[in-house]
Amino acid sequence: MKVFVINCGSSSLKYQLINMVDESVLASGLIERIGMDGSILTHKPEGKDKFIVEQKMENHEVAIKLVLDALVDEKHGVVKSMDEIDAVGHRVLHGGEYFDKSVLITDETMKTIEELIDLGPLHMPANIMGIKSCQNIMPNVPQVATFDTAFHQTIPEHAYIYSIPYEYYEKYKIRKYGFHGTSHKYITERAAFMLGKNVEEVNIVSCHLGNGASLAAIKNGKCIETSMGITPLEGLTMGTRSGDIDPAVIQVLMGKEDINIDQALEILNKKSGVLGISGVSSDFRDIEKAAEEGNHRAQLALDHFTYVVRKYIGAYIGAIGGVDAVVFTAGVGENAPGMRASICKGLEFFGIEVDEEENNMRGKEKDVSKARARVRTFVIPTNEEIVIARDTLELTK
């Protein structure tokens, strides 16, 4: 069985075609600038040369058709016809309180997904466009939705409720939902394997650290707390997002800068985080280079980020009541040994001790703890696509 996994952004589309017999990736790729000038498809078929197409793509349906053409292309393709694609799995940002697991897309579930646009106005319309485009192009192929929020639906009420008048939760479902759930789910399963335990037995803190970043507290294999909230703005300091701040900062910005609420949120979402502190970049590699050259604000951004992550790890160990492992994943978590070491420095009293030599590596699944450490420190490259593909297989086979 072959599953086509799609992740639609507002102007982008990432995809993989996966052979579920052995979970091998037959092809992967990225389309950028959908609906804009300079649209480009970068298609990477397994065992063949990279294939690039530059042409105008007015919408997601045109983009998906172009991807399917590439998949069956005589020279660059990996399947003989679209008939070999058995199912499509879609990454969907928000499942609200309706979805605690992946679902087969029907008219009824689609209606519910559309009702959740208000909870994710930046991402949900693109996710929905991707689903509808595939339905139009492949009307007889089953489609599955996997939600970023689903894994976090086990968070208890006392942890997800906000301390605002309860009526706003009742009327508008304003509460913590959390994101990166597909990544945290994969990390939990791999950590259990590395620990030699069943998933239901593991207690970990999962650290998804990239331009977008979140932590999840996993107790007995289930999420009991996560750092992102009703939107991905809450929690850790990130590449361009502020993370936790005093809400009154918004009022101060609006008054001092004479801006409206949308402009204030634009600042907090796209101009803050380590970019805002450093003034250099939202890319941690650029910030590390600037810090090495003596840039104080760049060093301040790094120190602030590691401090915030360390603080959250300590809090989440307390929430769980002790852990088996702390796990690092995503762009920074997988590829920045210095950042991992800095984050863990000061957590030794929890039993977390990183071995400098073992930690000096990038992008590999590895235990980087000292042999004597009571709590293991793992690096596990995430694989959200395979989680989506597995759920799609299970629901459509």
TrEMBL record:
ATP binds at residues 14, 208-212, 283-285, 331-335. The active site is at 148 (proton donor/acceptor). Substrate binds at residue 91. Its EC number is 2.7.2.1. Gene3D superfamilies: 3.30.420.40. Its main location: cytoplasm. Keywords: ATP-binding, Cytoplasm, Kinase, Magnesium, Metal-binding, Nucleotide-binding, Transferase. It is an enzyme of class 2 (transferase). SUPFAM superfamilies: Actin-like ATPase domain. The record marks 180, 241 as: Transition state stabilizer. Signal peptide: none annotated. Mg(2+) binds at residues 7, 384. InterPro entries: Ac/propionate_kinase, Aliphatic_acid_kin_short-chain, Aliphatic_acid_kinase_CS, ATPase_NBD. GO terms for biological process: acetate metabolic process; acetyl-CoA biosynthetic process. Pfam families: Acetate_kinase. It catalyses: acetate + ATP = acetyl phosphate + ADP. HAMAP family: Acetate_kinase (MF_00020). Homodimer. This is Acetate kinase. It comes from Desulfonispora thiosulfatigenes DSM 11270. The lineage of its organism: Bacteria, Bacillati, Bacillota, Clostridia, Eubacteriales.
